[in-house]
Design a protein that fits this description.
Elements (H helix, E strand, L loop, with lengths): L1 H13 L9 E11 L4 E12 L4 H8 L2 E4 L4 E5 L2 E2 L1 E3 L2 E9 L2 E2 L14 E8 L28 E5 L3 H13 L4 E2 L7 E7 H4 L12 H4 L3 E6 L2 E7 L5 E4 L4 E8 L5 E7 L2 H8 L4 H4 L4 E5 L2 E5 L4
Length: 300
């Protein structure tokens, strides 16, 4: 009998099932909100996770959940369920280190250091929001999709602004590289007329359905203006001449790309000053004009 039990244990371990929680691998944080991060559903928490933990298990330990598709996807958290309301589609979507997950929560294995963010939102204007800024200092500190990667700063601003952003990234724990590597995170800093030449940044000009960013930078006879959109993708506010924006996006399965831009030098400087946890935390993107910050999208 002892031999049989030993053989069974070995077989289960080889199959990756395990008989226990496994060894601890570090700490993971959990944030659960609704309406693009505007309202907390559960208190933020952080706890030790083991090598057998997944995003689903972390959530299940901290909330009452209902699942679908054989337990792979979340249907409801603390009684707030996916569905339609007034013609608008609502669902639970999650991010790890600020990057939208591409697998079900039950299949996303935690390795320690992750910032997991669940948000219940109206996705009728943008089914995918591939990256967000609200998990700062992630993904710069611990990377994305389970891999620690370098960060490439591509700065087309004046020297003081470039040095300031580099300092903020270094303080966030970024491993700064001179050139973007295959899976490296990119941070684009500069006036929009320059950044719009980048294919990833140019997605903003195709609307939130393409970029996941609820903002537009538009040419007018008086120069460029920054327009903030609401959750339905409609114009909610037009900023003045010195507006700035911090947002994140992703092109297909490429690395996340952060955008720090403005409609003027003053707007770009103001945008660069947003790179702090106090300003970005729990936000998808942030617009700024002077000292006034506007989380995006704007509520309907």
């Amino acid at each position: 009998m002892a031999v049989a039990i030993a053989l069974l244990s070995a077989a289960l371990a080889a199959a990756g099932c395990g008989l226990g929680p496994g060894e601890e691998v570090g700490t993971a944080s959990l944030l659960v909100t609704r309406d693009y991060g505007r309202e907390a559903v559960l208190p933020a928490t952080a706890e030790e996770v083991s090598e057998s933990d997944t995003v689903m298990r972390l959530l299940d330990r901290n909330a009452e959940i209902e699942t679908r598709y054989s337990g792979d996807f979340v249907e409801a958290i603390d009684g707030i369920a996916a569905g339609r309301d007034g013609g608008r589609a609502w669902d639970w979507l999650y991010y790890v280190n600020g990057v939208e997950a591409t697998v079900g929560a039950a299949d996303y294995e935690l390795r320690g250091g992750e910032a997991v963010w669940w948000d219940y939102r109206d996705w009728s204007a943008a089914l995918r929001v591939p990256a967000v800024v609200g998990s700062w200092p992630q993904p710069f500190r611990d990377g994305y999709e389970g891999e620690r990667v370098a960060t490439a700063l591509e700065c087309f601003a004046d020297r003081p602004t470039c040095l300031f952003v580099r300092g903020r990234l270094a303080s966030a724990g970024a491993s700064l590289a001179g050139e973007p590597a295959g899976g490296g995170i990119r941070v684009l800093v500069g006036p929009w007329r320059r950044l719009r030449q980048d294919p990833a940044a140019a997605q903003l000009e195709k609307g939130p359905q393409a970029s996941g960013v609820f903002a537009e930078l538009v040419d007018t006879p008086r120069g460029q203006v920054l327009i903030a959109l609401d959750e339905g993708g409609e114009v909610a506010r037009t900023f003045g001449a010195d507006a700035g924006l911090v947002a994140a996006t992703r092109r297909a399965e490429g690395p996340p790309v952060w955008i720090v831009t403005g409609t003027s030098r003053a707007g770009l400087t103001a945008a660069s000053r947003l790179l702090t946890g106090a300003t970005l935390r729990n936000r998808y993107a942030v617009a700024v004009e002077g000292r006034g910050e506007t989380p995006l999208p704007v509520p309907r």
